[in-house]
Design brief:
The chain is an alpha/beta fold and 328 residues long. The chain has one domain (2-184, 222-256, 292-307): 3-Layer(aba) Sandwich (Rossmann fold). Helix content is 41%, strand content 17%. It contains 10 helices and 13 strands. The protein has helices at residues 11-22, 39-49, 65-74, 97-117, 153-172, 194-204, 223-235, 261-272, 296-302, 310-327; strands at 2-6, 26-31, 55-59, 78-83, 123-129, 176-181, 184-185, 207-210, 217-218, 221-222, 248-253, 259-260, 277-280. The chain has a 7-stranded parallel β-sheet, sandwiched between helices. It starts with a strand and ends with a helix.
Length: 328
């Protein structure tokens, strides 16, 4: 059978597709290759997958319901879905809010309808975000905490995907798992995320914008740990517990440690061999001072055990960053 991976040219998506192919799965990957960031990076990721046995790529916008539904006839053996396509980024949601409703709203609905239309959907895993915790001040963030006080439109749309999924699991008994990712980083990462953005500016001698005047902490999670959690979720769909217990679960995937942003920058400086210029700024609208994942539920149900601290992950990222720009 075959796994559909949406956002397959994205940071997390292309790693998931590789891991599935490595274990002998067939993968249909879709991506609209939009220009939210440099398309050349997306194409370079995609190039790593093209030509591999069992991989097929379709360029497609998930908000186009007609095209999404056509996949059912083109690939009738799809029985599982890893839905990672989304409009990401808290700050960009202040600039282009409608992109979030199209991708994270309409697009997610299209994938739920696609899952519903499959003869047998064994499981669908989808990307949520730690941004759903919004103005929550209790640490660490637990999946049992309230998530009805979003501080960004991005976080609100991700919470909406969880609510939509809950309703579809209730109505149609589709096994669904939502994963709240905590600041994912590593080789082939997104240019708008801290590691890539800071490394570029440090090497160019440009100031790094550091919000809340440096008083920020994040639960940085390495890509290999995230991929392991996604595959575990795909392989362990929730059971249908009856009318009051639909087959839908939400889990945190984080490193279960909250690191000071200035320590993260310090390791980058050391690995790059260049001192950063810090542009200390006030808190950015839609942002929060600290994230920290409680992963008790994902450890219990998924066997999720992150193993990569930033002292290991950042050097891995910097090594890749140097090689990528040398080849570019």
């Amino acid at each position: 059978m075959t796994v559909l991976v949406t956002g397959v040219a994205g940071f997390i998506g292309h790693y998931v597709a590789q891991a599935l192919l490595d274990r002998g799965e067939r993968v249909v990957g879709i991506d609209n290759l939009n220009d939210y960031y440099d398309v050349r990076l997306k194409l370079a990721r995609l190039k790593k997958l093209e030509g591999r046995n069992g991989f097929v790529f379709q360029k497609m916008n998930i908000a186009d319901f007609r095209l999404v539904m056509a996949l059912k006839d083109a690939f009738p053996d799809i029985d599982r879905i890893v839905h990672l396509a989304a409009q990401a980024g808290v700050r960009y949601s202040l600039i282009n809010p409608f992109a979030y409703m199209d991708s994270n709203g309409t697009g997610h609905l299209a994938l739920l309808e696609f899952a519903r239309a499959l003869p047998k959907c064994r499981s669908m895993v989808y990307a949520s975000s730690s941004s759903v915790y919004g103005s929550n001040t209790k640490l660490p963030f637990s999946v049992d905490d309230r998530t009805d006080t979003p501080v960004s439109l991005y976080g609100a749309t991700k919470k909406a995907t969880e609510l939509m999924s809950q309703s579809y699991a209730h109505l149609y008994r589709i096994p669904l798992i939502g994963l709240r990712f905590f600041t994912v980083y590593g080789p082939w990462g997104r240019p708008d995320m801290a590691a890539f953005l800071f490394a570029d500016k440090i090497l160019k001698g440009e100031p790094i914008p550091v919000f809340n005047r440096g008083e920020m902490k994040r639960d940085f999670t390495y890509i290999d740990d995230i991929v392991a959690g996604i595959l575990a979720s795909l392989d362990r769909p929730p059971a249908d517990g009856g009318p009051g217990d639909p087959p839908h679960r939400v889990y945190n995937l984080g490193n279960h440690r909250s690191e000071p942003l200035l320590r993260f920058i310090g390791i980058l400086e050391r690995e790059l061999g260049v001192k950063a210029q810090l542009d200390l700024q006030p808190m950015q609208p839609g942002d929060v001072p600290e994230t920290y994942a409680d992963i008790a539920a994902s450890q219990r149900d998924l066997g999720f055990t992150p193993t990569t601290p930033i002292d290991v992950g950042i050097p891995n990222f910097v090594k890749w960053h140097k090689e990528y720009h040398r080849k570019a």
